[in-house]
């Protein structure tokens, strides 16, 4: 199905044949050699791919600004960069290279030196009956001292969908990039997401992941803090309900001196949902005086849910500081009692406590309409 014949057909239709062919073929060679993963903890031992088809439903909302270039992904030479191709990231090499080789949409964003993009770039990627397959590949290149916010908005029209997305982010010296991933697919869609960020001296990347939907939600985001004073932040929320399964992995690779990282994940599980969280801090040789923190807090609303948390810290350097914490439990009884004594029902009190936990991440979204939509959706899910 996803073979050389299909790849050749895609390349014939490419508008940028020479550059597109090289990067896609490199990824295809790796794709052929790899196997799909087995998610043992989630008890998923096979992966089924839908037939390939084109995707024609992407919408990019933005204000034109001098120094900002936004174009289709496969018209850009940046995707061959050895620095991107050589890094390991994603839930599996098989899934990542599938999209690198066969992507059916995507965006390249370049921000020139010193440019502060004043409004967020919103990339809407909905699935519907005519576009049930989404293999999107995005690249963001922020030059020295630039700033940009990008929102990836994933949702569907209750179709049997499949999404496998990839994003690559290059943050040059002193640049600041924020990526917000909103995932609100229906329970008929599979969602897999691979993210990679390379951060140079004094640069910063922030990744906000909001996972509310899909039958299987897999997110893996890896940040390489390559130079001095580079910074990586992950702030994520998730809500698992029904029989949904989630596998969330966030990795910080400290390579530069005085690099800093912070992973903060908050979630809630109800019904028969199952979640696996992995937070990994790597302190590599040369990352002296680096500091990293990872924390995950999940509220369990039913006895039938399952939560696995696997924080890890791996160190090759002495002069560093790392800490990790994870907790899973019921809603705080004291808070619950206080709110119910003020006239709220137990269900209303629990919803309020969870929303209060989620609000700091939702507030990161620079579009009020999206904030309100998420708050409404979360309230509906929690009241079910």
From TrEMBL:
One of its GO terms (biological process) is iron-sulfur cluster assembly. Residues 128-356 form the SUF system FeS cluster assembly SufBD core domain. InterPro entries: Fe-S_cluster_assembly_SufBD, SUF_FeS_clus_asmbl_SufBD_core, SUF_FeS_clus_asmbl_SufBD_sf, SUF_FeS_clus_asmbl_SufD. Signal peptide: none annotated. It holds the Pfam family SUFBD_core. It comes from the Bacteria. Belongs to the iron-sulfur cluster assembly SufBD family. This is Fe-S cluster assembly protein SufD. It comes from Petrocella atlantisensis. The gene is sufD.
